[in-house]
Amino acid sequence: MTKILVINGPNLNVLGQREPATYGYETLTDIEQHLSTIASELDTQIDFFQSNAEHLIIERLHQLFSDPVDAVIINPAAFTHTSVAIRDAILAVNVPFYEVHLSNLHKREEFRHHSFFSDIALAVICGMGSAGYEYALQDAVKRFKHQ
Ligand code: DQA
Question: pTM score > 0.90 for this model?
Answer without folding.
Answer: yes
